[in-house]
From TrEMBL:
<dbReference type="InterPro" id="IPR018484">
    <property type="entry name" value="FGGY_N"/>
</dbReference>
<protein>
    <recommendedName>
        <fullName>Xylulose kinase</fullName>
        <ecNumber>2.7.1.17</ecNumber>
    </recommendedName>
</protein>
<feature type="binding site">
    <location>
        <begin position="71"/>
        <end position="72"/>
    </location>
    <ligand>
        <name>substrate</name>
    </ligand>
</feature>
<keyword id="KW-0808">Transferase</keyword>
<keyword id="KW-0119">Carbohydrate metabolism</keyword>
<feature type="active site" description="Proton acceptor">
    <location>
        <position position="235"/>
    </location>
</feature>
<comment type="similarity">
    <text>Belongs to the FGGY kinase family.</text>
</comment>
<dbReference type="InterPro" id="IPR043129">
    <property type="entry name" value="ATPase_NBD"/>
</dbReference>
<dbReference type="InterPro" id="IPR018485">
    <property type="entry name" value="FGGY_C"/>
</dbReference>
<dbReference type="InterPro" id="IPR018483">
    <property type="entry name" value="Carb_kinase_FGGY_CS"/>
</dbReference>
<keyword id="KW-0067">ATP-binding</keyword>
<dbReference type="GO" id="GO:0004856">
    <property type="term" value="F:D-xylulokinase activity"/>
</dbReference>
<keyword id="KW-0547">Nucleotide-binding</keyword>
<dbReference type="GO" id="GO:0005998">
    <property type="term" value="P:xylulose catabolic process"/>
</dbReference>
<dbReference type="GO" id="GO:0042732">
    <property type="term" value="P:D-xylose metabolic process"/>
</dbReference>
<feature type="domain" description="Carbohydrate kinase FGGY C-terminal">
    <location>
        <begin position="251"/>
        <end position="432"/>
    </location>
</feature>
<dbReference type="InterPro" id="IPR000577">
    <property type="entry name" value="Carb_kinase_FGGY"/>
</dbReference>
């Protein structure tokens, strides 16, 4: 019975699961928090991974380990492999002007967007690594001069697990490479000309591995024993792999980010920029829409109302669908889809009738879900078929989210049992590496619950009328 470990190094925390490679049975798990903020010293992720792995009983008895991580974060290393500055995360919007500049330099407007969609599958927004490289080159030239290599959070953690074997030892996978802005899912190759255009010179980048290729072995200091390292992947690609998303399935993940994605056989190239044309962890593609505001909208609403998350859900469910016209536009951290990096949130429709905790709770849940429903529309416009939505992430633990989602999405919503599906996807990749074979092991997800409800189109209509009515941050 070989064991495998899967790691989810996401925005708010690190989770480790240890599973039986053949059956997928969960044996042990651990977690540790990450620091707040949109720039983080990668060393904090390393410490969190080590303590989550310790809580999970250590890695000494596993045959393989894979790391899934928050996408896009810019980890810059010098010649000696030292981190040059804290990593800028996917939700750091300071590179919004750099994104606009890169589109302008490629022809501007629709032509510039088309160029990027064709070259890399996605139109750059502030989240993408390439925009952060441009920001660094322009705003911190002394730090930029020290950079010898750039990689992503999961690449760096995999490299640390291997014992930090020099810059030539950096490895990544198709899924995470596709979120950099300098790798093409359609051709499966880097566009280092674009990296150079953005940063001003070439950098070492990780070698891109196939889905079941090994990135080396676990360092002895971690209990090594010859355990293989998987290539790892981005957290959304890992979630799709973890829940075993198939044709007609759209995964909606409500974590720090809100993401809407499906597994596709052909690469996407949405010139509007709404859908990012990523690659997945199985060798296929992962068209994806991402919002900056998801589970933390519920956290913020609970704080405003002075209640816990369970009480927030009860309040939301006690108000009518549509909250009698109270609408929350949830751009609390600016927004990525639509591309409004400076936007702030807003509440519309306040009357004496709607000025109650229940109405505000309902408006928060509906506003967050409506932004994701817009993402669902963008995904179907790119050819995705939606038979059902699979709901995952911390926000899926909310009873209100589970029950209101089918009203807003207009299709059945299935919720797997509360679990760590990103870490599970990483573990399944590790099992594929450990066991070999042309296809990954089949792990069954048991105990899925289905939620169905009559769609309530008025909720989306009132949100559509309100979503543009927001102020930019000053
Ligand atoms: N019962 C719940 N109701 C609503 N939100 C919840 C609940 N439990 C956890 N969350 C939220 O889930 C979020 C963390 O989700 P997670 O998917 O782990 O995020 P990430 O992967 O971005 O680190 C937190 O913002 C937390 O408040
Ligand atoms: O930027 C994206 C997807 O493009 C985000 O989904 C990040 O990958 C962070 O994920 P979470 O920590 O919210 O799960």
């Amino acid at each position: 019975m070989p064991l495998v470990a899967g790691v989810d190094s996401s925005t708010q925390s690190c989770k480790v699961v240890i599973r039986d490679a053949e059956t997928g049975t969960l044996l042990r798990q651990g977690r540790a928090p990450h620091p707040d903020g949109t720039e983080v010293d990668p060393e904090a992720w390393w410490q969190a991974l080590r303590s989550a792995a310790d809580e999970a009983g250590g890695l000494a008895d596993v045959a393989a380990v894979s790391v899934a991580g928050q996408q896009h974060g810019m980890v810059c290393l010098d010649e000696a492999g030292r981190v040059v500055r804290p990593a800028l995360l996917w939700n750091d919007t300071r590179s919004a002007d750099a994104a606009a500049d890169l589109i302008e330099e490629a022809g501007g407007g629709a032509a510039g967007s088309r160029f990027w969609a064709e070259a890399t599958g996605s139109v750059p927004v502030a989240s993408f690594t390439i925009t952060k490289l441009r920001w660094l080159a322009r705003h911190e030239p002394e730090q930029a001069a020290r950079v010898a290599a750039v990689c992503l959070p999961h690449d760096w953690l995999t490299w640390r697990l291997a014992g930090a074997p020099g810059l030539a030892g950096l490895r990544t996978d198709r899924g995470d490479a596709s979120g950099t802005g300098y790798w093409s899912p359609a051709t499966g190759s880097y566009r280092l000309d674009l990296l150079e255009r953005a940063f001003g010179r070439q950098l070492v980048v990780p070698e891109v591995l196939g889905p079941a290729e090994s990135a080396g072995t676990l360092a002895d200091e971690l209990g090594g024993g010859g355990a293989l390292l998987g290539a790892g992947t981005g957290d959304n690609a890992a979630a799709a792999f973890g829940v075993g998303a198939g044709p007609g399935d759209v995964v909606v993940s409500i974590g720090t980010s809100g993401t809407v994605f499906s597994v596709a056989d052909v690469p996407a190239g949405d010139e509007s920029g709404a859908v990012a044309g990523f690659a997945d962890a199985s060798g296929r593609f992962l068209p994806l829409v991402c919002t900056l505001n998801a589970a933390r909208v519920l956290d913020a609403a609970a704080t405003m109302l002075g209640v816990g998350l369970d009480e927030l859900a009860e309040l939301a469910l006690s108000a009518p669908a549509g909250a009698d016209g109270l609408v929350m536009v949830p751009y609390l951290e600016g927004e990525r889809t639509p591309n409004r990096p400076l936007a702030t949130g807003a509440v519309h429709g306040l009357t004496l009738r709607t000025s109650t905790p229940a109405h505000l709770a309902r408006a928060a849940v509906e506003g967050m879900l409506c932004a994701l429903a817009d993402g669902l529309d963008a995904l179907t416009a790119q050819g995705a078929t939606v038979r059902r939505v699979i709901l995952v992430g911390g926000g899926a633990r909310s009873a209100a989210v589970r029950r209101i989602a089918p009203q807003v999405f207009g299709c059945p919503v299935v919720v797997p049992p509360a679990g760590e599906y990103v870490a599970d996807g990483a573990a399944r990749q590790a099992a594929w590496v450990a066991l070999g074979g042309a296809t990954p092991p089949q792990w069954e997800v048991k105990g899925t619950e289905e939620y169905a409800a009559e769609p309530v189109p008025a909720v989306r209509e009132q949100y559509a009328a309100a979503r543009g009515l927001v102020l930019d941050r000053r």
